[in-house]
């Protein structure tokens, strides 16, 4: 067991997956807390589908996948927030439209170019082999930028998450910080998407923070616990995936799910006592 | 020069006018209460004063040393705050943001002001408690402390006693009186509770899609609008 776990580190692709996945897990846990509390949980799902479409198009046109997906997702995120504000189409409906629309475009592009094959399956459900050496550098740089910006804007992000109208009334540029959140989220989604899969990436945003919220009494501890849970779930999940050759994204989500139920039980136990 | 003066201000949603021809001013130290029935435009006007909604006509001018971001706001509580994991200290601290300008993090002087505000509103003991676990009255006091951190000049309060038990209502009104008298804070409040607020407020603004009455609380009670609303409340 230990030997085969140590073997993980002998493969370059595993090292890359561990580094990028670990960083993405941290970013998504931090951002996820704000998104869940602002009732934007589905934004991750919407963006990952847009990411899928843009990846498909990038491959078809022979462009570098990330340099296409990131700007496209950023634009989609702004668009979603804008809809939220104008509220002619409700946020959840807009996300649903975006999801299925983008998925259709992506599937159509793939079937017209390379045809449906295992690549599609990898896009959808993620692959441990997805991170190429050239992706590694960009992913590391971008996720460090995301972490850095999150820390720098932390007090403002808290204020905008807790009470947007108060923050706006007392002179905080809430639009700007919403955009920062959207920008950071889209980068995180694109970075994590190919390992976790289009259909599963949003769990990385939602699970750790929902789990942490079961037991934490303040915001700072919530994001720290969420970050730890996310990292733990990722490492356990990817190890299981490596040891038993099972899909990476799915095993991470299942570990996250078990953690969630454990914490839910803990919360219920605590409530019963008091 | 007044703190805030409105000149023929109007508001509209998607082209439909909901409020028109509003013209009044708020002086330093005033205690203004905005009354009117549901749909009269009270909340819209409040949003306009807070800069959350743009006026479709007329102008809102801040003066007498008051800047547009020096407003402490006590909003109606939102649904999402009921499961929000935040300690009371974190909530109050977020009121200091507008004082930070280019600083990224909370400074020593901010901490001092947060502690003073919590002391003043008697919520120091709740510092580490989780906001979602508090009673309605405690929450309002914590949010009032946050508003106090944001501004010691002007406090804007939206339906502060909605959903509170009678004792907590009384406490909250007394707290507002104290802020107005002791700290000299200017208060603008929207309320349904006409009978209570005419006793406490200095000035009344009655809205019914436009401005129906603006003047002292005593004059309001003897005006036809005041009589009408008080009577309606008794019947309800």
TrEMBL record, chain A:
It comes from the Bacteria. The chain crosses the membrane at residues 56-81, 93-116, 136-155, 223-243, 249-269. Keywords: Membrane, Transmembrane, Transmembrane helix, Transport. GO terms for biological process: response to zinc ion; transmembrane transport. One of its GO terms (cellular component) is ATP-binding cassette (ABC) transporter complex. InterPro entries: ABC_BtuC-like, ABC_TroCD. Its main location: membrane. The keyword Metal-binding does not apply. It is a multi-pass membrane protein. It is found in: Cell membrane; Membrane. Pfam families: ABC-3. The keyword Transport applies. PANTHER family: ABC-TRANSPORTER METAL-BINDING PROTEIN, METAL TRANSPORT SYSTEM MEMBRANE PROTEIN TM_0125-RELATED. Belongs to the ABC-3 integral membrane protein family. This is ABC transporter.
From TrEMBL, chain B:
Pfam families: ABC_tran (PF00005). Belongs to the ABC transporter superfamily. It comes from Oribacterium asaccharolyticum ACB7. One of its GO terms (molecular function) is ATP hydrolysis activity. PANTHER family: METAL TRANSPORT SYSTEM ATP-BINDING PROTEIN TM_0124-RELATED. Residues 4-234 form the ABC transporter domain. InterPro entries: AAA+_ATPase, ABC_transporter-like_ATP-bd, ABC_transporter-like_CS, Metal_Ion_Import_ABC, P-loop_NTPase. Keywords: ATP-binding, Nucleotide-binding, Transport. This is ABC transporter domain-containing protein.
């Amino acid at each position: 067991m230990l030997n085969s776990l140590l073997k993980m580190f002998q493969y370059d692709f595993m090292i890359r997956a561990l580094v990028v996945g670990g960083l993405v897990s941290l970013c998504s846990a931090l951002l996820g807390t704000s998104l869940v509390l602002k009732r934007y949980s589905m934004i991750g799902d919407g963006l990952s589908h847009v990411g899928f479409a843009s990846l498909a198009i990038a491959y078809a046109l022979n462009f570098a996948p990330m340099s296409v997906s990131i700007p496209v997702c950023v634009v989609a995120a702004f668009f979603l927030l804008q809809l939220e504000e104008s509220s002619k189409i409700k946020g959840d409906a807009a996300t649903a439209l975006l999801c299925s629309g983008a998925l259709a475009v992506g599937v159509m592009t793939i079937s017209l170019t390379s045809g449906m094959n295992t690549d599609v399956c990898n896009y959808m459900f993620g692959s441990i082999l997805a991170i190429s050496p050239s992706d590694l550098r960009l992913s590391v740089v971008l996720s460090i930028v995301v972490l850095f910006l999150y820390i720098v804007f932390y007090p403002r992000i808290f204020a905008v998450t807790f009470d947007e109208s108060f923050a706006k009334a007392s002179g905080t540029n809430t639009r700007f910080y919403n955009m920062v959140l959207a920008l950071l989220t889209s980068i995180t989604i694109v970075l994590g998407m190919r390992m976790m899969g289009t259909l599963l990436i949003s769990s990385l945003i939602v699970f750790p923070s929902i789990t942490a919220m079961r037991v934490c009494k303040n915001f700072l501890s919530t994001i720290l616990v969420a970050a730890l849970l996310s990292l733990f779930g990722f490492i356990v999940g990817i190890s299981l995936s490596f040891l038993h050759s099972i899909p990476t994204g799915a095993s991470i989500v299942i570990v996250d799910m078990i953690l969630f139920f454990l914490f839910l039980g803990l919360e219920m136990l605590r409530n019963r006592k008091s | 020069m007044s703190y805030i003066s409105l000149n023929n201000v109007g508001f509209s949603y998607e082209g439909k006018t909901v409020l028109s021809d509003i013209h009044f001013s708020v002086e330093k130290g005033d205690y203004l209460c905005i009354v009117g029935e549901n749909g009269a435009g009270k909340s819209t006007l409040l949003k306009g004063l807070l800069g959350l909604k743009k006026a479709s006509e007329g102008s809102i001018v801040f003066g007498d040393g008051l800047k547009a971001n020096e407003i402490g706001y006590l909003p109606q509580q939102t649904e999402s705050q009921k499961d929000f994991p935040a300690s009371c200290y974190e909530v109050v601290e977020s009121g200091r943001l507008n004082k930070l300008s280019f600083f990224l993090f909370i400074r020593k002087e901010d901490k001092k002001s947060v502690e003073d505000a919590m002391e003043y509103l008697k919520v120091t003991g709740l510092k580490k408690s989780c906001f979602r676990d508090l009673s309605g009255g405690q929450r309002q006091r914590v949010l009032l402390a946050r508003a106090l951190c944001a501004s010691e000049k002007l406090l804007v309060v939206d339906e502060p006693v909605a959903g509170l038990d009678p004792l907590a209502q009384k406490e909250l009104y007394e707290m507002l009186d104290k802020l107005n008298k002791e700290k000299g804070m200017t208060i603008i409040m929207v309320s349904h509770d006409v009978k209570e607020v005419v006793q406490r407020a200095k000035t009344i603004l009655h809205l019914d899609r436009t401005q129906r009455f603006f003047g002292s609380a005593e004059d309001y009670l003897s005006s036809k609008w005041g009589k009408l609303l008080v009577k309606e409340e008794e019947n309800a």
